[in-house]
Amino acid sequence: MSFFLNTEDGYYSLTTGGVVTVILITALLVLLPALLQKKGGQDASKTKGGFSARQLTFSAAAIALGFAFSYIRIIPMPWGGSVTLCSMLFVTLIGFWYGPKAGLAAGFAYGFLQFTQDGGSYILSPLQACLDYIFAFAALGLSGLFCNKKCGLIKGYLFAIAVRGLFHALGGYLYWMDYMPESFPKSLAAIYPIAYNYSYIFAEGLITVVILMLPPVKKAMARVENMAVQA
Question: b vs e for 1-30, b when ≥16 Cβ sit within 10 Å of the residue's Cβ?
Answer without folding.
Answer: eeebbeeeeeebebbeebbeebeeebeeeb
